[in-house]
Specification:
This protein has helices spanning 13-24, 33-40, 45-55, 76-86, 106-109, and strands at 31-32, 64-65, 90-91, 103-104. The protein is mainly α.
């Protein structure tokens, strides 16, 4: 069955897997686009990013991030609110940072998919 013949509310199987994993990332933790692809053993960062751009609004999209910890352009303030609410580790921005927005502290916020892990340390 091609994607064109799918019912309007059906998602491609890969998209379902990406979104399912995004929903399982604990509050206060993040995975990079590449982490998600590696965990799923399929696709790559660009494919995960595409899924999140098209379908990610229904899941905690702010938990799937860029590897450099920079907040998602265009959604920085929404994401920042979620990070602060969840206690996600952040690194305060230096004065030279554009918009003076913090970055994610990837060393502390990154989640490896271990379902026994609860929140950040």
């Amino acid at each position: 069955m091609s994607e064109r013949s799918l019912p309007e509310d059906a998602l491609p199987e890969y998209a379902e897997r990406v979104l399912d994993l995004a929903e399982r990332i604990p509050p206060g933790r993040v995975m990079t686009y590449g982490d998600v692809a590696e965990w799923l053993e399929e696709g790559g960062p660009r494919q995960v990013g595409r899924v999140m751009a098209l379908y990610g609004g229904a899941v905690p999209w702010w938990r799937v991030v860029r590897a450099d910890g920079v907040l998602l352009p265009g959604n920085e303030l929404d994401a920042l609110g979620h990070y602060r609410d969840e206690g996600t580790p952040l690194r305060e921005a230096g004065r030279a940072s554009e918009g003076h927005l913090p970055r994610l502290d990837m060393r502390r916020a990154r989640w490896d998919g271990d379902t026994s892990a609860k929140g950040h340390i």
